[in-house]
Amino acid sequence: MKKSAAAASAWPRHLHLIGPEPAAKTAPPTPEAVGSKAYHLWRMAQLGLPVPAALVLGTHYTRDPAASLPPLLGSGLPALEAACALKLGDPRAPLLVSVRSGAPVSMPGMMETLLNVGLCEATLPGLLRQSGNPRMVWDAYRRLIASYAQVVAGLPAPLFEAELQRATQGGDERELDYQGLRALCRSYLALYQTHAGQAFPQDPHEQLAAAVQAVYGSWFAPKAKSYRKLHGIDEQLGTAVIVQRMVFGNSGTHSGAGVGFTRDPSSGEPTLWVDFLANAQGEDVVSGQRNAHGHASLAQTLPQAWEALQNAARTLEQSFSDMQDFEFTVQDGHLHLLQTRSGKRTPRAAVRIALDLHEAGLIERQTARERTAHLKPKDLVLQQLAPRSGAEAAEGWQPLELARASSACSGIASGEIALDPERAIERARAGVPVLLVRPDAQTDDIEALQRVQGLLTQRGARTAHAAVVARQLGKVCLVGCADLRIDAQRQTVAFGPHEYAVGESLTLDGNQGIVYAGALAVVDVPDLHLQRRLQALRDNP
């Protein structure tokens, strides 16, 4: 049945539905109104790519989040429920949603996300019936309780991390069975009651309303303000909030979550660059707290999903005419795309990507020139380690290799060790080259990241939000260093038998993914081939 003009005009102006028939609800959105993340979701849906249905609350509500609730609950949620054929809070067929931020300008990891909203004691049996997977259900519930406690109730994350460590005895939580996860949920609920002073909310609509307001509120978080100041982003832009049907990467061995780039963001090489974690949700990859695997793991365990991802990546790059950074979930072998945006890249990668896209006919010569106009030949160099003297070279000098890690950004950086952002900032202000060494790659370290020479972490993926920020800042970044041991009490780090105190120096080789002892000499080697290609672009009409 065709909708009347009156019915169409009754749809709230600052709500947008992304789903099977978005045009039935609203006119095409704009990035300013719905943020770049939601705008790109809409474009992916228009391309026929597998995007879960979503409702977008516009940037208009950032200064008054409570004003978004009447249209959300009155018009938006029923429309989303109809698109999904599920209902929030339904004990038999519950709709669960993620609640995400999305500003007009990309701000990776600077604002909050909540997953599995709508799960409660009443809807647990319904999700069990839908999925037939008790482990997934209890895993989703414990994730919701912990994230809601931190984002909405403001409780400290270590409360729940310590309980998780106790339950796993320091192991991987993916090895917990549903009984262990159910017991963990009960412990989390007790922690919430004790420290929040009230029970965890069991009304899914209450959960959703509070989550939406908390995500809007995260626009004003200190790390988000620091990021905007660093990158000159207008405070008045605000953020949209995306309420999207959940897909579950934590539903078993044929599921998982990942982040990828359509090209290598360090070199620009035209090959997919993917981090993937089986039986996990997206926050496990981007949070910086978990190591991930490359595309080989995905290709081996889920070949059909890998083929679908390759095809989707080609479509994204051809449609957006630029290298894309995308997030995805695989549920029971089926691919779902959750985000795409222009990927952060090094100067060398920026030049190669622009040149390659122009030569492939995806962008005009003028566009390639504009994308590389700010770069100079001195930006197109490769850094290499070198002996400090002829005597060292004559003696067959070799640096002491301490460990290997995953490289999120190429280059070489030396500096003294700092284990906390406060010391890193203090020493950097004194003019001392510093390396920030941390257990996890955290976006909360944004102010320190802009001052240090490099970042080394014990855990984390190359595509974690903090690693993406480090690469955007041009910082050498090594993550997931399994041999790194940090002793915060003694203020030391160790790699096997080799121990170093705060203030001593290390060198990070982002080209090879190696940690070396001491501060080593570096030489810049011009990338002559890339310099010639760039000059030809500028010289030819």
From TrEMBL:
GO terms for molecular function: ATP binding; kinase activity; pyruvate, phosphate dikinase activity. It holds the Pfam family PPDK_N. Keywords: Kinase, Pyruvate, Transferase. Residues 79-291, 306-354 form the Pyruvate phosphate dikinase AMP/ATP-binding domain. Residues 434-513 form the PEP-utilising enzyme mobile domain. This is Phosphoenolpyruvate synthase/pyruvate phosphate dikinase.
